[in-house]
Every structure is written in structure tokens, then in C-alpha cells.
Amino acid sequence: MIALHARAEELPLARPFRVAGFSLTAAHTVVVELHWNDVVAYGESAPLARYGDSVGAIMDFFRGYVLPAGAGPFAAMRVLDGVPRAARCALDVALFDLRGKVLRASVTDLLGLDGLSAPPTSLTIPIEDDLGTVLERVRALRDAPVLKVKVGAAGADDVELIEAIRAHYTGAIRIDANEGWNAEQAVRILGELKRFGVEVCEQPIPAGHPEQLRWISERSPIPLMADEDAVVATQLGPLVGCVDSVNVKLAKCGGLGAAYDMIAAARALGFRVMIGCMAETSILATAAGHLGPLADWLDIDGPTLLAHDPYRGITFEGGRIVMPTGPGLGVTLAPARVLGD
Question: How far apart (Å, rounded) are the C-alpha atoms in residues 164 and 97?
């Protein structure tokens, strides 16, 4: 019989993280442990109020959740049946970790992706109050192959921002407006940004207006990506012809299994795919990393935002993710001295 333990984590960020519409000073996640015989498996959910999710709601669910009688590591359909999306993310990831550990195989092996390479990940430049702080961060990341720059803040000059960054950085630039513009602003700004070689613009306008995304796409020299408009796979159909690509996040769609299915649906509909993240620990980021070979782009830098990560898993070298060895996710607890900081 599997034993389940869930706990809320509040993890301070190394520095405040601001995007259009909100800012964070800590990551708020839920970590699930599944105990089976002498095996301990880990899962995580990183809920965001933007999607109607919260740590409190997930914890309330798990307090009342009872695992199906006799459920073991391979009873995923029974264990996950009826579990809400945000809680499902943590439980599904933990089940993948458990199955891998029982079988002595990595999640990459379980997914049939062993030996396939993943693209480099972007590293994120958040919104700052002054340009000097942004450029200091850019200079520190000058050797990274890809930067994802947050734009869309009210009153900000996004063209000036990207022009200044491009003067100091020669790698690929992607931008994310986090719903911060309207359609007319998007067309104007994206037209001006063409000369700086921006690869893609993520979610330029508030979600729920595919016809406006289509209108922008028809006029923009820079391809569009849906994020807040693409939470789960069933939302992809109306986006055909409106955006070029979609951002798949485990925390949004409900875990590894849901993300795998969402990627398959996106491919069937002709979308390019980014695998993204939230402010999260190495548990959830490593889970996303196991899907890396299925993506055109990666944006899995959530653990780099933390002041201290209580877990060890995915690492970063020269803008590429390095997956841990070992069965399951390959995630382990960090040394006790880090947990106690």
C-alpha cells in the first residue's frame, strides 16, 4: 500500500521576480512524497492564482484524499481519477518517480526518450524598475544561448528595453508580455522589435481572445506563442491559425502525463512547442526536463530563481540542462545544511 504525505513549501527567491501583472518574492509549492516499501518518490505542484489554483486548495484536497484500496505504483489511472488538476500535477509526477524507482529506470526511459537530445533552455530576465539592473543581469548571462525577456509592464518602453539588451547580448532573444499589451500595442511594438531578431513573443494580450491573436499574427513579423491561453490540451483547437506555438507547463496542465498528451495534441495541430516552468524546485523542473527532447524550445529555469533549492536534480551548464542520473526523476534531497538555511 502506498502512503502519501503532502507538505506546503514557501521558498524565498534570490531576488524579487516581476512580470506584467504580478511579482513574486517566494515560490509557493506543494511537495508530495509517496512511500512504497523502502522507496520514497517525490512530486510537486507550483500553483498560480492566475489559473485559479492555490497551495491551500491543494493541501485541503490531500487532507481529505484517500488512496484507492490496494493501489500500487502502477495503478495510476485509479490513483489519479477525479484528482483536481493542480493536485494531480504533484501526484502524477510522484507516481512517475515511484514507477521509475521500482523498475530501476529513469523517467526518460519510461517515456521512450533515452538517447534523444533536448534544446538549450532560456534564462529569464524579469521586469525591473531601472534599465541598469536589467543590463547588469544581461551581462551576467552574456554566455547563455537564449534569454527570455519579460515585457509588457504598464508605462514601460519595451522597444528601448530590447534595443539596450541587444546592444550587450548576441544570443537568441524571446519575449513574454504575460498578457500586458492590447492588440494594437502588440502590432506596433512587435513591428518595431523585428530589427532586433526576436524569435517569438509569448502571450501578448489577455487570454480568451483568439480572434485578436489571429489579427495580431496576421500583422506581426514575429511569431506568437500562447501560454495563459493554453492551460490544458482541450484549449488548443481554437488557437489554430492564431499562434505559431504553445507553452506547455506541468503545473498548468496537471503533470507529466498530461504534458505528454498536450505535446502530442499540439504537434497534431501543427504547433511548435515550448516546455516551460513556474517558480519551482528541482522536483518539478527535473520532471519537465525529462520531456525536453519533445520540445522545440525549453524554458526550464525555475530552480535558478530560488535562494536555496531543498532538492537536487536538474542542473545547468552553458544554457543547457543536465539531467541527473538515477532511477525515476533522479531527484534527491539537498544536504541538511541547505535545508536549514
Answer: 43
State the CATH architecture for 3-104.
2-Layer Sandwich (3.30)
pTM for this predicted structure = 0.95
12 with 26: CB under 8 angstroms? yes
E-strand stretches of 2-143: 3-19, 22-36, 39-45, 123-125
pLDDT tens-place string over residues 207-225? 999 999 999 999 999 999 9
Q: What is the CATH number assigned to the segment(s) 123-339?
A: 3.20.20.120
Contacts of 337 (CB under 8 A, 6+ apart): none
Residues 6 or more apart whose CB falls under 8 angstroms from that of 97 comprise 34, 41, 42, 43, 107, 287, 328, 329, 331
